[in-house]
Amino acid sequence: MSPSPEKGAANDIDRHKREAAERAVESIQPGMVVGLGTGSTAAFVVHRLAALRGEGKLLDVKGVPTSRRTAVLAESLGIPLTTLEAHPVLDVCIDGADEVDPELRLIKGGGGALLREKIVAQASRRVIIVVDEGKLSPRLGTRWAVPVEVLPFGWRSQALYLEGLGARVTQRLGPEGSPFVTDQGHFILDCAWGALEHPEALAARLQARAGIVEHGLFLGLTSELIVAGSRGVEVRRPG
Ligand SMILES: O=C(CO)[C@H](O)[C@H](O)COP(=O)(O)O
C-alpha cells in the first residue's frame, strides 16, 4: 500500500532535512569544535556525526550543544561535548531555521533555543544553516512569527511593548498548557508582524528594550545555506 499524500509529503520533508544536514557535515574536519544546533534538522547533523564516528571518522571532533535537548541526544550517541568556556571560538556551527529570506536572514527559535543558538552562532567562524526548501520565504515574517525571549519578571510589560510595535503577541505554552520555559528560565512571546519590510530596524527596537533577552531574527550571521528539495541539494552564500 502506498503512503497517504500527507505522509508522503512529511517523508519528503524529512528526507530533505537529512540531505541538507548530511551535506553540512561534510564541512567538518578532524579536530574541529562544532556548534550543534537544535531542532529536527539539526538532529540529523548529530546522527550523521555519530554514524561517522561509528566508522572511525571524526573521533576527535567535539560539540557545543545549543540546548539541553541537543546535549541529551549527542551524549546518548557518544559524541564528546565541550563548552564555550573551554572553546570561546568555534570552528563551525550547523543549525536549522524556521524561515530564510533571499538575503539568508533567518527567523529561528521554533524550538525555543534561540538565545543559546545565537550565542553559539556569533561565537563561530562559520555558520552553516540547513533547511528543507519549505523554509524559503520571499520575506521574513511571511510564514513564521518572530519568537521573542523575555524575562518572566515584567513579561506582560514586554508583551504590551511588542503590541505597541504592531505585533500580535502569543505567549508560547508548554505541553501542559503552562508557560513554555527556555533552558535559561525565560518565557517566549511569539510575535506575528506579517511580512517584515525592515528586519534590521525591528531588531534594533527589540534590542533596545530591557526585559527582552533575545529575539529570533538572525541577521547577517549565515555564512552558508544548504537547502534540500525536490531538485536536489543547493548551497547558497550571502551576496
Ligand atoms: O531555531 C530552531 C530551534 O530553536 C530550529 O533550528 C528551528 O525551529 C528549525 O527546526 P526544525 O529543523 O525542526 O524544522
Structural write-up:
- With 239 residues, this protein is α/β, with parallel strands linked by helices.
- The chain has two domains: 8-137 and 219-228, Rossmann fold (3-Layer(aba) Sandwich); 146-211, ACT domain (Alpha-Beta Plaits, 2-Layer Sandwich), CATH 3.30.70.
- The protein has helices at residues 5-25, 40-54, 68-76, 114-122, 155-164, 199-207; strands at 33-36, 62-65, 92-95, 99-100, 106-107, 127-132, 146-150, 168-171, 187-192, 212-215, 217-218, 224-229, 232-236.
- Strands 2-1-3-6-12-13 form a six-stranded mixed β-sheet, with helices on both faces.
- Helix 2 (40-54) links the parallel strand 1 (33-36) and strand 2.
- The radius of gyration is 18 Å and the shape is globular.
- Bound molecules: ribulose-5-phosphate (5RP).
- Ribulose-5-phosphate binds next to helix 2 and helix 4.
- It is an enzyme of class 5 (isomerase).
Which structural traits does this protein have?
single chain, 239 residues, alpha/beta, Rossmann fold, Alpha-Beta Plaits, 2 domains, six-stranded mixed beta sheet, four-stranded antiparallel beta sheet, 6 helices, 13 strands, 31% helix, binds ribulose-5-phosphate
